[in-house]
Amino acid sequence: MQIDIIYTTITGNSETIVTALDDEFFKQGYEADIHEFEETELSDLNKSDIVVIVPYTYDKGTVPDESMDFFDDLNTADWSNKVCGVIGSGDKFYGKDYGKAVEKFADQVKKAGANLATAPVKIQLAIDDDDLPTIHKFVSELLAAKN
Ligand SMILES: Cc1cc2nc3c(=O)[nH]c(=O)nc-3n(C[C@H](O)[C@H](O)[C@H](O)COP(=O)(O)O)c2cc1C
Q1: 145 C-alpha vs ligand 1 centroid, how far in Å?
Q2: Percent residues over pLDDT 90 in the chain
Q3: Which of 13, 53, 94 to mutate to test the pocket of ligand 1 (most atoms within 8 A of CB)?
Q4: By the 8 A CB rule, do 6 and 52 touch?
Q5: Member of which family (predicted)?
């Protein structure tokens, strides 16, 4: 099974999410490949069975700058063979814009036909121990959808 995690980070919080995902996939018997948005073309994911997208939210609820090309390319993608999950860091301080990039990417991958097999997740800043059951459920649901 090919599992790919795509992320970017400015201050490191998203990296804590990626590490937690990677650890959880490993615990459940799978290895994930980790990529940054800017270094990833959609065609790199042609063989991917499960794609996890990890966007932080910026500037009034926008997706990360580094992910914009990837986001736009999804407009013309066919991801109907893929199971997908979206989980991203935000800050509740931003009120109605909290974690908006997670919602935007979730809508975008659904439009591309992906099976969004687990509910999109917003993480307050960095992962802490309280988030680990959420990560467990997220990864379990992705794997169950593909197995
Ligand atoms: C200028 C600026 C604007 C931000 N705007 C939002 C926002 O609209 N919504 C939100 O949930 N978080 C917002 N954040 C918080 C970031 O999403 C949060 O700090 C996140 O953990 C950054 O991820 P990173 O550590 O992986 O770079 C903003 C942060 C900065 C510095």
Answers
A1: 31
A2: 99
A3: 94
A4: yes
A5: Belongs to the flavodoxin family.
